[in-house]
Amino acid sequence: MNDAGNPESPQPLPLSRRHALHLGALLAGTGLAGLVSAHPARAGTTPAERAAATVAAVTAAGIAPSAAGDDFARMRAQWRAGYVGSDYDPADPAIAPGLARLAAETHQWWSTMETGADRAFLWPDARLDVQISFAISISFGRLSRMALGWATPGIDTHGDPKLLADVIAAMDWMVAHYYREDGQIIGNWYEWMISGPQSFNLAAMLVYDDLSADRIGAYTRAVANYTPEPIATAANRVLTADVVVGRGILAGDAAAVRLGVDGLAPVMSYADSGDGFHRDGSFIQHDYYPYNGSYGVSLLATLPGIFQRVAGTPFAVSDPIVYEWIRDAYDPLIWHGGLMDMASGRVIARHNEQDHHAGHAAVDAALGLWVAAPAETSAWLGPMLKEWILADTQDDPLAGRSVPALLQARTLLADESVPRRGPLVTSHVFAAMDRVVHRRTNWAYGISMCSRRIANFESINDENLRGWLTADGATYLYDHQIDHYNDGFWPTVDPYRIPGTTVDVRERRPMEGRGYLNPQDWVGGTTLADRYTAVGMWLASQGCSLVSRRSWFCFDDEVVALGTGITAHDGRRVETVVENRRLATGTEAVVVNGTTAVPGLGEQTTVPAARWVHLAGTGGYVFPHGVKAHLKREHRVGRWSDITQHPSWKDDTPLPRDYFTLWLDHGVDPDQAAYSYVLLPTADAETTRRYAERPGTAVVANTSRVQAVRALNAGVLGVNLWALGAASIVSTRAPAGVVVQEGDEEVALAVSDPTRAAGKVWISVGVPANRVLAADEGLRVITLDPLTVEVDLGGANGTSRGLRATYRPWSVPDLQRVLAGLGPAEVSPNARQALSQALDTLADLAERGRPAHAQLWALRRRIAALRGHGLSPEAAAVLDDGTQRLFARLRP
């Protein structure tokens, strides 16, 4: 990636440049476009030469500009309708505020625009003689808003002849002086090739009926000079295609429209690597960065505009793949109207493009696609959209929308035949971008990682200066406080203590370590039935010797976090950050082991043996073995300029915020340190206390070879094998992630290869299966008893494969047989007698269908007490594991 802004090495234009122009979501044909991948202009040719070559190539291919004139009239009318709308009442309370804003903006730009014959610029804050590329984008953007104000009925500038004359004169002036048909790109290519011409095309379309043929020719030749053809990849290819289609419609140039439409083809398929949408819903831009929330949204938001313009003509294009993108790439990431920050790259450092901004743009795009969706797609898309819109109780997703978008949304919301779906409950691994989302009804958990495939953070254009740890196993908790990350979080949070991370506490320079690729490949997750997920990350941290292996096991009511192999030798402390939560009021109670802690701002304490911690309004944190916990409640003040120095978003306004931080200190130069804790989102203090006494999960293993956790009541076992090995009933011959659920009549298995290197993976699950009910492609059953399979994961790209089978479930007699099989060296006579009596009681309760959880807990406590005192450690582990397997089948 090259950061230099010159014609041979263009650099991205920040996304909110478009919003500095006040285009916003009204630009239905461009959406959130404004991010760009480095794609240098072709060496050795001028834009004009490239344009001529492109036209020649299109002509040679037999594509003649022969579309009927009424096709172009239709396309212009459809384009215009996407911005201006029709058949609405300007006094409608839902529409009037937006019209008033447009009128005010039109007057603002009109009244401040230079109109003199000797002008050197159109606006003094966008001097074309000082910062030309930036000013190109600004100037055309404002002209497009003025043109929209002239074209939109219901406001006082509608049809104003003086406004029309000033807009046309300004466009003439731009083409004559700066955006010339024989001009060269100076500075940032994005503004010349995408943002500027998109706005120019829009303005020209809105006043098209008042333009002479000569003017239209001059305008479109200028655009063709800078954007002769679609270029680049993913989002930027769609944006340049949009420019080419637009100028073709204006010029009546069928070859250009066809060139632009056909330029979409490389994007309208799934990427196997690199930029674009992947089958698991990941979206990558700049080769290494997750960008569903910015580049991806700009792509998604631009396509409906193109589809709408060319509909019903020989150039008509549509593709059902876009609906798959909405479902797979956006539905898991949108929480109450906001799009999770871990998929928005450097945009988290922009004050006016936080998570709800991106989420609302996704709503706009999906609305535009819903209008034309086939019935089978509309059946799920409509309810999903209703949920997205109505669940956002913080920011109205429809505020500031265009008239057409408002009318579309009103139609959807008023349609009683379209139900509101309700909260999405799922567990989703975005394997291609090292992100995981685990969602329940009233909370969601995000995990952000990096690997040899995905870099840690992007920081260019003086943006995202402190993104150091945002993909080092960073975790994000979403709950009822839906503005948590949307209200000054990133400039005020302690950037050295990002939740979920295990870190070397050294100071870092702005942008330090950007683009770092973790050399370890074991990064990913395994999902069973889109409900339970085992996530793992082997991290060699940037800029130091710290290594760690960490896992997150995501179940129904909790997330269990394990860390092991934490080792460093740099002479510095290493910490694991359990939580760093922005407080809504600053006074939320913190309770540790039943006692209030850090009651006031500025207080910090260390609790030597913390078993559980509760933060009011957020949830609980349980430490199964007790830990030395560090807690702090602090008042912090930050500024957006702390994390971005880009002039479009640099803001020095102080932002006071309050935080609660909870962390573990592994000391200086730890050697094979470890940790375990359980996060209980939304749990109250009493629920947290009870969980600490009788946890719903059990850590099966936490070593440098394997980490494993069982969810007792669900009968789910999650296993991350860093190397070949075994844990409980699971064994493998290669590194793998495995999730198993033992039900009353069925066993389900999911397997993945986060390393992408194993090819075929052999897995044995120590249960007696009877019949396979369903199996994914590439999975071969070797034996049923015990259930043993070979899974071909060579082309899975880190995603999961699995099966379901009937089986004979684990029972108390099975555990009795295990005890009977232990020799005298493993269990003493007294221990055998005590355990036999306990198992007889369990067997009797199970036979009568009576509740047995209390007896199971008593049995586990007895096994623990006998460990090393009549029961060998190995025997104790086997018996405890067998006891854990009974929880899901014996009634509580």
UniProtKB/TrEMBL annotation:
<dbReference type="InterPro" id="IPR038970">
    <property type="entry name" value="Lyase_8"/>
</dbReference>
<dbReference type="InterPro" id="IPR006311">
    <property type="entry name" value="TAT_signal"/>
</dbReference>
<dbReference type="Pfam" id="PF02884">
    <property type="entry name" value="Lyase_8_C"/>
</dbReference>
<dbReference type="InterPro" id="IPR003159">
    <property type="entry name" value="Lyase_8_central_dom"/>
</dbReference>
<feature type="active site">
    <location>
        <position position="286"/>
    </location>
</feature>
<dbReference type="InterPro" id="IPR012970">
    <property type="entry name" value="Lyase_8_alpha_N"/>
</dbReference>
<dbReference type="InterPro" id="IPR004103">
    <property type="entry name" value="Lyase_8_C"/>
</dbReference>
<dbReference type="InterPro" id="IPR014718">
    <property type="entry name" value="GH-type_carb-bd"/>
</dbReference>
<feature type="domain" description="Polysaccharide lyase family 8 central">
    <location>
        <begin position="428"/>
        <end position="683"/>
    </location>
</feature>
<dbReference type="GO" id="GO:0030246">
    <property type="term" value="F:carbohydrate binding"/>
</dbReference>
<protein>
    <submittedName>
        <fullName>Hyaluronate lyase</fullName>
    </submittedName>
</protein>
<dbReference type="GO" id="GO:0016837">
    <property type="term" value="F:carbon-oxygen lyase activity, acting on polysaccharides"/>
</dbReference>
<feature type="active site">
    <location>
        <position position="346"/>
    </location>
</feature>
<dbReference type="Pfam" id="PF08124">
    <property type="entry name" value="Lyase_8_N"/>
</dbReference>
<dbReference type="InterPro" id="IPR011013">
    <property type="entry name" value="Gal_mutarotase_sf_dom"/>
</dbReference>
<dbReference type="InterPro" id="IPR011071">
    <property type="entry name" value="Lyase_8-like_C"/>
</dbReference>
<feature type="domain" description="Polysaccharide lyase family 8 C-terminal">
    <location>
        <begin position="699"/>
        <end position="758"/>
    </location>
</feature>
<feature type="domain" description="Polysaccharide lyase 8 N-terminal alpha-helical">
    <location>
        <begin position="79"/>
        <end position="377"/>
    </location>
</feature>
<dbReference type="Pfam" id="PF02278">
    <property type="entry name" value="Lyase_8"/>
</dbReference>
<keyword id="KW-0456">Lyase</keyword>
<dbReference type="GO" id="GO:0005576">
    <property type="term" value="C:extracellular region"/>
</dbReference>
<feature type="active site">
    <location>
        <position position="295"/>
    </location>
</feature>
<comment type="similarity">
    <text>Belongs to the polysaccharide lyase 8 family.</text>
</comment>
<dbReference type="GO" id="GO:0005975">
    <property type="term" value="P:carbohydrate metabolic process"/>
</dbReference>
<dbReference type="InterPro" id="IPR008929">
    <property type="entry name" value="Chondroitin_lyas"/>
</dbReference>
<keyword id="KW-0732">Signal</keyword>
